[in-house]
Design a protein that fits this description.
Two copies of one chain form a homodimer. Chain A has 259 residues and is α+β, with helices and mostly antiparallel strands. In chain A, 37% of the residues lie in helices and 18% in strands. Chain A has nine helices and eleven strands. Chain A has helices spanning 4-7, 29-36, 43-51, 130-136, 143-168, 171-185, 200-207, 211-223, 239-245, and strands spanning 56-59, 64-66, 74-78, 81-86, 92-98, 103-104, 117-120, 124-128, 193-195, 227-230, 233-236. Chain A has a four-stranded antiparallel sheet with strand order 1-8-3-6. The first copy, chain A, has a four-stranded antiparallel sheet with strand order 2-7-4-5. The first copy, chain A, has a three-stranded antiparallel sheet with strand order 9-11-10. The radius of gyration of chain A is 19 Å and the shape is globular. At the A-B interface, strand 4, strand 5, strand 7 and helix 5 of A face strand 4, strand 5, strand 7 and helix 5 of B. The first copy, chain A, binds a DNA duplex (30 and 30 nucleotides) through helix 8.
DNA sequence: CGGTTATTTGAAATACGTCAATTCAAGTGG
DNA sequence: CCACTTGAATTGACGTATTTCAAATAACCG
């Protein structure tokens, strides 16, 4: 398998999104923020993370950060990536997106490497997470470990939502639901606009739709003044209506759960 | 929320499947087999598992074994269950099936309880896995722990397959793919027939299809002499053709993964 | 500016869902 | 053993959501 990342011209990604490639410690900010969201990190732990900077790598859009079946824990310092699988006839399903500060290639179940490739959607920077995991592995109550488990738990929860979307939501519900999920994930829960540097083809492969149909759904949402995607940014005009369109209220354990 | 399990008449499940409610140690056989598949268990560990028998419970079809958002690790000793979520308008998506010997309500990410309910599809027996997890928790290299991690890893892999099915496979591909997965899981990889005590409504909710359409797909598969579902049993007539219909060859990391 | 990749639109085909009824299989109580 | 009941499976007719194919336009890049 040839690494297309190095030879291909970088796909155009509409919008103002340009990874900043911040220098030094600043590049770690997203990662540290996420790790510390669940448990305070000790100075020693923070130091450990900073030690990873030596292993920083840059990749162009389309680069395969992790081949399917391969192991190798990494963190995404900047940019956007996705985990996916491609069928032999070209159909592609994207399982999840990877945002700056999140990890991949790591699973609490080391026994079985995940059958999913991780691919860069924009220019990205990664660092090897191996040393950190090794160091944190001893005390499984360490702050780093708790942060990682929490991140993995969030990913797990997202996967369930994703299955609902793919299996039981209509196209427009899927789109609305996905945009709201991205709004939350980018930390723009209250902002009217946030970065979403994905091509429609990528979004279609997330949502299990054809590009053409996705485009029509987006047009409709725009016409209804719910949300607008332009040049890599999402503009949420009517968050309440968008949530309604997403059929958000997933109700648990109802009495007629089984019938 | 009322526990419908105790009041409802048990739904009829076509087919010869009747959980046997084996007595004593025999009931643990499926569980022990799965745990030991990845790492030999010490006599002490086996003893621990046998100690769980005291906490055995029986449930009728439809019983909610685990409410959405609740925690509480359990093993399924016999019968079939599923993890699912139900939307407020009644749409249901089944995330995974739970077979005898498998666990649920447990996750390596204790931080976040999974937003999925677990519901009995047949009469089932469960045992509380809490004591075992507590005991095994100390040495994370213990055989029990490795077995559990492997089971969780398998579930993880199934979820990815499931997302592919829901997002990118056609209805008949989904059905064929699902039946083959069940053939493997029931340990009947080579057998022409194996138990599959699911109503078409359940299967439809697994595969994200309507019951009516699922029924038509099954008719077609039967007409093509690929597979037949009758009275809770699946009869695979042509495994090779069925695999072809399932579009099984999921190819990893292809060069055009991104374009 | 030319070349390339994304987005957008239209028209036609198809896959899938809904509604409504019928048949079938398996208890259950007399 | 037999109506009777109930849930599941099956079928037909029809509507709609979504895909496919093909082409045009628009955005971006060097």
């Amino acid at each position: 398998v040839v690494d297309v990342a190095e030879t291909r011209p970088s796909p155009r990604l509409s919008g103002p999104f340009r990874p900043s490639f911040a220098d030094g410690a600043a590049a770690l900010a997203p990662l540290l923020r996420r790790l510390a969201a669940f448990a305070e990190l000790t100075p020693a732990e923070t130091g450990h993370v900073q030690g990873l900077l030596a292993r920083r790598r840059r990749w162009r859009p389309g680069a395969v950060l992790l081949a399917e079946g391969a192991a190798g824990a990494q963190f995404l310092l900047s940019g956007w990536a996705c985990s996916q699988r491609v069928l032999s006839d070209g159909r592609r399903q994207i399982f999840d997106l990877v945002l700056a500060g999140e990890g991949f290639g790591w699973s609490p179940f080391a026994e079985i490497p995940a059958q999913q490739a991780v691919v860069a959607l924009t220019s990205v920077e990664t660092i090897d997470a191996g040393p950190l995991l090794a160091a944190a592995g001893e005390g499984s109550q360490s702050g780093v470990w708790r942060g990682l488990r929490a991140l993995a738990g969030e990913a797990e929860a997202r996967r369930l939502d994703h299955m609902i979307r793919l299996g039981r939501l209509t196209a427009s519900e899927r789109v609305a639901h996905f945009i709201l999920e991205m709004q939350r994930r980018t930390g723009a829960a209250d902002a009217r606009s946030f970065p979403l540097p994905l091509t429609q083809e990528t979004m279609a492969d997330v949502l299990g739709l054809s590009v053409v149909h996705l485009n029509r759904v987006l047009r409709q949402l725009r016409a209804d003044r719910l949300v607008e995607l332009r040049r890599g940014m999402a503009l949420v005009s009517d968050a309440r209506a968008l949530a309604a369109a997403a059929f958000l209220p997933a109700v648990g354990d109802r009495a007629h759960a089984f019938r």
